[in-house]
Design the sequence.
């Protein structure tokens, strides 16, 4: 049966569990007490206000109801139900409060928007009931370590994606269809079954109802809002919260709160903003602790934390930041190690200032670097392997994060080298993605070059049908292979176009880096890249080198840059910034009909890291180490 609308009067708005005269303790955002309805008595009875008024639920015996029902069962258990209800209402001062509540209800609804409040409260009650009837929601919650009883303490519900049953329920509640469509304006846009999450502001009024997919399908943040409205109110926000703990995930906040950790709020995977902190400060916050999941791009994450610190300093709030270990979440941490472990971790974490933040990040990086190094056996390659360049792989310990300048003599061979390395890396590392940015040649030419390398034929051969069916078959197989690499998001070939510049490149690659932790970027024809910014530098090569360093520092991946250098008796000549800023120079040289690849790096302690003869296929120009 749906939650009784007739019982949504004064006891829902005005009555508080502390009026019951029983011992209560604060537990997260809820109140907890010993359960009088089963023996032996256990501290398992929760009083919660997730639906906008106080209810009780025992997580052991399953007893539940509103405060009138609690008084009926605990004080007037021997009476018939009508008489017990009358006694309970009298005990709670029902008649006088009921008259006052009608005025308060009207003012309450007026403050939060009248009809909108009715619609959202109605939707929450409906989904709250539907969760008990839905096997799929129960299975999903169980997969996350939750049961229906625990979930209902926080008002979680279930929406099937079909709005018609809810519209029928609204008619019984006195709401018209057009009212529901107006205030729940996204309800009919999402037809997937979702867990519903009521989000209330500090006064307890619902400002939105979130929906979370039960099947993520690879989506990183599968949340939507069924009602348009402010989205920068932290979930689980509470009044009189002097030290909120800010987490990212919804289940992170729920698990921590159910474990009794006070003041845990969630940004629902939104970026923490000044508006979030202002709303917490309005609830009495004079400090805040942000707990983040570890991201692959540690440098980018550190920059964001510095931004959070500046926002907190603007509001005169003390600030702490904690970045958890890899693959660890607050949800997992609390379940595995308990609430006391997390509280102790927060207590021992030093407050952030610009100085202490940098120091704590440095200490963390040093430890992680050591742990990663000691976890890598001596015979394991640290970077990405190259099957066709085994000696190079051994000498440089694989292709690792860095900025590498690639050039050759004659100059045109550098494109063959980059293409050969790209195909070799893809074949040798099944998890790797290559983005090849062709600024000198059309994308089709690069694609034809790669087909030629896969078949061992010339570019001219792969561009038309051949009299030999065997060759046509090889071309078809190579084309299918490259098409499959594109479909599976392991290879992209970009070409230049009029509006393409370094800022657009940075923006796109940052998003790619978030989706692909194993990424290598090759820029063929760096001298043709359009630069927007760094106008204080007159030299165009200086400007390009600076923006490439910015790109590398932001992405922290292997970055190959193809450009032109000139060898002399004293060494390489060319744009000095590329020689100065590159981690290594890959130089391909042809002398006396012998092709040699060398890798020179002044940054790794040894100038000449690698030097080896290279075999180049005379037809396809595919390169590999000579035996």
Sequence:
């Amino acid at each position: 049966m749906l939650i009784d609308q007739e019982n949504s009067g004064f006891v829902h708005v005005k009555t508080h569990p502390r009026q019951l005269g029983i011992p209560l303790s604060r537990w997260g955002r809820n109140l907890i007490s010993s359960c009088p309805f089963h023996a032996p008595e256990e501290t398992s009875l929760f009083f919660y206000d997730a639906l906008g008024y106080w209810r009780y639920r025992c997580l052991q015996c399953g007893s539940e109801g509103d405060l009138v029902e609690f008084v009926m069962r605990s004080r007037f258990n021997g009476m018939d139900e009508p008489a017990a209800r009358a006694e309970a209402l009298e005990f709670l001062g029902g008649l006088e409060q009921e008259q006052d509540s009608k005025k308060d209800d009207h003012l309450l609804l007026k403050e939060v928007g009248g009809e909108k409040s009715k619609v959202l409260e109605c939707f929450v009650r409906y989904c709250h009931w539907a969760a008990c009837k839905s096997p799929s929601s129960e299975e999903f919650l169980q997969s996350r370590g939750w049961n229906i009883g625990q979930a209902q303490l926080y008002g979680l519900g279930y929406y099937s994606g079909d709005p018609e049953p809810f519209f029928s329920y609204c008619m019984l509640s006195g709401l018209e269809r057009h009212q529901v469509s107006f205030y729940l304006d996204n309800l009919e846009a999402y037809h997937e079954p979702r867990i519903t999450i009521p989000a209330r502001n500090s006064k307890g009024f619902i400002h939105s109802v979130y929906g979370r997919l039960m099947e993520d399908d690879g989506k990183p943040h599968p949340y939507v809002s069924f009602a348009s409205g402010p989205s920068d109110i932290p979930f689980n926000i509470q009044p009189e919260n002097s030290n909120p703990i800010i987490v990212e995930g919804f289940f992170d906040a729920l698990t921590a709160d159910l474990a009794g950790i006070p003041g845990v709020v969630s940004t629902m995977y939104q970026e923490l903003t000044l508006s979030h902190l202002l709303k917490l400060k309005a609830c009495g916050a004079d400090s805040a602790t942000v707990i983040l999941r570890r991201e692959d791009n540690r440098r980018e994450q550190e920059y964001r934390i510095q931004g959070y610190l500046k926002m907190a300093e603007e509001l005169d709030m003390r600030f702490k930041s904690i970045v958890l270990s890899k693959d660890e979440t607050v949800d997992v941490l609390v379940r595995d190690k308990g609430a006391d472990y997390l509280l102790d971790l927060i207590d021992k974490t030093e407050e952030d200032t610009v100085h202490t933040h940098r120091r704590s990040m440095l200490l963390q990086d040093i430890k992680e670097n050591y742990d990663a190094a000691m976890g890598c056996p001596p015979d394991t390659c640290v970077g990405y392997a190259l099957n066709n360049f085994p000696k190079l792989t051994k000498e440089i310990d694989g292709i690792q994060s860095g900025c590498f300048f690639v050039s050759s003599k004659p100059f045109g061979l550098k494109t063959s080298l980059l293409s050969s390395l790209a195909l070799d890396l893809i074949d040798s590392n099944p998890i790797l993605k290559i983005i090849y940015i062709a600024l000198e040649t059309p994308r089709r030419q690069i694609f034809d070059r790669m087909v030629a390398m896969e078949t061992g034929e010339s570019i001219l051969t792969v561009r038309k049908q051949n009299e030999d069916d065997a060759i046509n078959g090889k071309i078809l197989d190579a084309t299918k292979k490259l098409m499959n690499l594109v479909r599976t998001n392991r290879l992209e070939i970009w070409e230049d176009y009029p509006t393409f510049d370094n800022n657009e490149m940075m923006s796109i690659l940052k998003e790619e880096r978030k989706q692909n932790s194993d990424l290598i970027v090759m820029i063929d024809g760096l001298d043709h890249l359009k630069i927007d910014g760094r106008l204080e530098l007159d030299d165009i090569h200086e400007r390009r080198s600076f923006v490439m360093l910015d790109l590398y520092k932001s992405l922290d991946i292997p970055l190959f840059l193809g450009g032109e250098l000139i060898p002399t008796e004293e060494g390489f000549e060319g744009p000095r910034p590329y020689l100065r800023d590159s981690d290594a120079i890959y130089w391909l040289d042809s002398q006396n009909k012998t092709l040699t690849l060398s890798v020179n790096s002044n940054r790794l302690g040894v100038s000449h890291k690698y030097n080896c003869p290279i075999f180049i296929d005379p037809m396809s120009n595919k390169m590999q180490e000579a035996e």
Remarks:
- The chain is about 40% helix and 20% strand.
